[in-house]
Amino acid sequence: TMKRETEAKRSPLTIVVYHYIRDLKGSRYPEIKGRDLSLFRGQLEYIARNHTVVTAEQVVGAISARAELPPNACWLTFDDGYIDHYANVFPLLMERGWQGTFFPPVASSIRRDVLDVNKIHFILCRAPTATLIDRIRSFVMETVLRPEQSFDQFWARYAVPNRFDPAEVVFVKKMLQVSLPEPGRSTLVGELFREFVTSDVRAFANELYMSLEQMQAMRKCGMRFGSHGSRHIWLDAVDTQTQEKEVEESLALLQAIGDSAADGWIMCYPYGGYDASLLSIVARKGASVGLTVRAGVADLARDPSLELPRLDTNDLPTAT
Fold first, then answer.
1. Listed residue (81, 96, 101) closest to 13, CA to CA
2. Which sign, positive or negative, has the C-alpha torsion 179, 181, 184, 186?
3. pLDDT (0 to 100) of residue 11
4. Are 311 and 17 in contact (CB under 8 A)?
């Protein structure tokens, strides 16, 4: 038995993460960084030929060594609760008899707020990056008075390219997501969104995100849901009390969807941000799996089960 348990744990698990999945060219925001629907279909074909798609239940079973994962196991995960997942992904998964696991935040699903993370995506589609940097510079000069928080120091710290974005875009995202002080930061994001995208925030939210009823329908058809916090904030940048509240609100959403599983729930850290105190909260509240944005194929023998790496859709081929 010991040998079999070790082998089960040793199975590599390719966890793929998706966000927007739509006909980009035919959409109102063709510049949004998403997976084009035709390429998504091609990627599903590639996965079908090279992997065995597994369910959340199989992953939890393998982690607790109750079962083995098949060779070349692949787990499909979808972040942020976009309408794309209901309209475009759900039918294609049903066609193949596959399960996906979806991570909707509470604020967008229930309160119909447009999350700051998404406001920033659409602002970047509509506003020249140089304009946004100028606005951030003015904001810093007007509101941030501490010498260690000059614009130049922010720039030196955050204007660093990553595998998805050039330095200027990383800088705008980091500053607007987390680094500018509150409450001014959210106010600035809201102003830029109204100016460059739309002033009708609720209508935009209704077009962008799945509704609770849609998620309940998906759950009834065998799809799984997990926690993505309440407001999609950097959970390693807030105090323990806020972390606890974010997790509790997201667990209430899972219950409303009909996905409070007996074998533990799944946590997906917004932006991949977590720390020791958040890990202890999710462990105490019974999470069985935690998903990061660290790029890699998960090794269930080595990776802590609350800190599994994932591959972005761009890391996998889109056709055979």
1. 101
2. positive
3. 74
4. yes
Burial profile 288-319: b = 16 or more Cβ within 10 angstroms, e = fewer: bbbbbeeeebbebeebebbbbbbbebeeeebe
31 pLDDT tier (thresholds 50, 70, 90): confident
- Cα separation of 142 and 140, whole Å? 5
Angle between helices 129-143 and 184-196 (to 10 degrees): 150
Residue 231 dihedral angles phi and psi, to the nearest 5°: -115, 10
Q: CA 126, CA 124: separation in Å to the nearest integer?
A: 5
Residues with Cβ < 8 Å from 192, sequence gap 6 or more?
119, 123, 127, 132, 135, 176
Residue 145 DSSP symbol: -
pLDDT beyond 70 at 4: no
The mean pLDDT of the chain is 92
Whole-number percent of the chain with pLDDT over 70: 94
Rounded Cα–Cα distance for residues 244 and 249 (Å) = 9
What is the C-alpha to C-alpha distance for residues 176 and 170, in angstroms, rounded to an integer? 10
Owner of token pair 């599983």:
261
Regarding pTM above 0.90, the answer is yes
Give, for 311, the enclosing helix (H) or strand (E).
strand 308-312
Whether residue 275 is predicted with pLDDT greater than 50 in this model: the reply is: yes
Residue type, 306: L
Residue positions counted in the chain? 320
Q: For residues 304 and 302, what is the distance between their CA atoms, to the nearest angstrom?
A: 6
Other beta carbons less than 10 A from residue 38's beta carbon: 13
pLDDT at 261 over 90: no
- Residue 156 burial (C-beta neighbours within 10 Å; 0-12, 13-18, 19+): exposed
Q: Please, how many CA atoms are within 13 Å of residue 274, restricted to the half-sphere of its CB?
A: 25
Q: Say which residue the tokens 């980009």 belong to.
A: 24
Q: Helix 129-143 crosses helix 167-174 at what angle (to 10 degrees)? A: 40
Segment 202-251, tens digit of pLDDT: 999 999 999 999 999 999 999 999 999 999 999 999 999 999 999 999 99
